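Record pair follows.
FIRST:
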Amino acid sequence: MNLHRLLAARAEAGRPVRVGLIGAGKFGSMFLAQARLVPGFHIMGVADLDPARARAALAETGWPAERVDAPSFAAALESGRTHITEDAEALIAADGLEVVIDATGHPPAGIRHARLCVRHGCHLVMVNVEADALVGPLLAREAAAAGLVYSLAYGDQPALICEMVDWARACGFPVVAAGKGTKYLPEFHASTPDTVWGYYGLTPEHAAASGMNPQMFNSFLDGTKSAIEMAAVANATGLTPPPDGLAFPPVGMDDLAEVLRPAADGGALHHKGQVEVISSVARDGGPVPRDLRWGVYVVFEAPSDYTARCFADYGLVTDASGRTTAMYKPYHLIGLELGISVASAALRGEATGAATGFRGDVAAVAKRDLAAGETLDGEGGYTVWGRLMPAPDSIAMDALPIGLAQGVKLTRAVAAGKVLTAADVALDETDGALRARRQMIAACGPAADAAAE
């Protein structure tokens, strides 16, 4: 509750938090829209492979031209203006930079940037949850060893879920489940960029006119993004995935406590302490009343009869026993809230969520019968979708992570609905993301945990 005061003090002292943004897409642009108005922030640089896009993003979000015309990082540091570049490594290495935001959405880039931040002594806010799901436990460990913060991005749902779980535990409430809402039907797993707009009720022409990327939006629809985000939450909170993947039960705000209990207690969960995504659409296609499509939730228990009576005294909606209840946030503001992570890292030395272990993984699953020789097109594409798995299970079967299922060829046929394994594809042994993944499993996987015990 003191971030604004701490930022104001830095501004008054002439020592603003100096920030570098990598990736000037939608998330990055939303951050820029608010960062311009926050005393105590200095956006030293914006790096994008297309500098013209970065300039356009700054202009669209209200930045006056005279504030974004620094000819170099040294000039930006001296003048308080912003330097635009296509060189992310030069941005990370710039003198005076404190916090880097990776908003690229590209796992190999995120891994590279995280390790450059460690080398150059910068905190990192990882908007790139794809990179976090692939190797986040390793990146968080490397940053901590260097005395730096590696953080999930506040405003994105994983960090907001982590906050709610932390709140419940800090109050002494055992957490039964936590997660987010989305639009889901089982048929969505087979959706492709050609079919996605029909499910959203849009025409391809409307989507194109709005600059909407069909593969990105399809990742939200086909379940992949939900799996990636819940892997990040599991790895950060200690909650665990169900063994058969996310079930996406349809449930509204008023029924969270009743439905999100273990099946043994009459609910829809596999176990207590689980991550789960809930659907805003009933299985017959009808709407769920008071859905939580845009929000996040935590379900928790009363640890005593006295606390359960307090739930009743203060009007909490509970399950039939009166002992299980829920809190939720119906909306999230994505990049508009991202400054909370930046300020927390720089001023408190704290992450707004970060992996503490390797508990959840996201495996590539065939959307259709795939033939030997086909090239996988990754998250949101035509060939695979991402299923959440317990990390020990994915390691045991050598499942192919969705983050490595881009641009690799199949060495043999895979039937629709099957989890792909590393043996099904020709992996590039020189690939940095693959090497980091193997390092992460060696350092943070079950074998490492057993050795530590």
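SECOND:
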Amino acid sequence: MTGSHDVFGVGSLTDVSGLRVGHHRRAGRGWLTGTTVVLAPGGAVAAVDVRGGGPGTRETDALDPRNLVDRIHGVCLTGGSAYGLAAADGVMAHLESRGLGVPVGPGRHDVVPVVPTAVIFDLGRGGSFTNRPDPSFGRRAARGARPEGALRGTVGAGTGARAGGLQGGVGMASARVDIGGRMVRVAALAVVNASGTLIDPSTGAPWTPVRRLRQPVRTERAALAAATAPADAVLNTTIGVIATDATIDRAEAGRLAQSAHDGLARAIRPAHSLLDGDVIFGLATGHEPLPTDRHGLVRAAESRVHALNAIYSLAADVFAAACTDAILTATGTSAHVAYRDLCPSAFRSIPVPTP
């Protein structure tokens, strides 16, 4: 197995062939929120795993392997709590205009787009409780979706996010695994808005190791400890997408999402609490075939079981890296101070992303 998934800032969800990512946000004048959209114009097998005690979702039942919808063309991740689910209407309109969705009639545009959606709680963080994403957010994020160059940090759905007292954000990571001579890609996008923390208070470094990051100096660690001291319970959530270009079915995509939750729990402590709405969608674009089970477990190196285990193991690592990437690439806002603001010595020559 190969990959550089333990390196901060390396890789994007769009490294999985067939995926695009777009963001839209508003900040200032009472606003601090946004929407992130993942598009799969060619379609993707999809599944979901919901772990948090307070999720806000839409169209997740459609992803059950027992139900009808086989492929989807878009996922919406957004701020605004349950109000923000309206952003998915804009994504639906965008997909409908391009004839992408479940065919329900003879015409090219006789489709019903299925857009699974999950939200984070960021209400009022910009100053006004009523400023939250609407259909225009989803439409603009979808229109801006690109197959490369996707932004990370304080963008899209991560605009009003916070994590353990710090500014949260959008993070991404990807890696590859060699399966029978084929390089299969696994990538993640995480919107981190956790009630738990991603930083070890004893060292000032992330729970998930990052090779390029240095341990902050002592004075910075003290400031960090003060900023991340336990506070009153707040409503939070970490949501995201774990994707692969392997050819897998919906049940296997569900296991992919399940494995990604293992990575979430490594990077964020605690995770999956009653105050979190943790939701991860699993996507597979199907560009790389996997071995069949003709050899069973006797020749495990050539079996589908071996291939899936390798993908699932990598999914946990990559999603953990994406969560850490979110907190490290975030930049401060009027509501929250960022990790890089408190601990600049940890970054040295690592560039600051531009939202």
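COMMENT: The mean pLDDT is 89.
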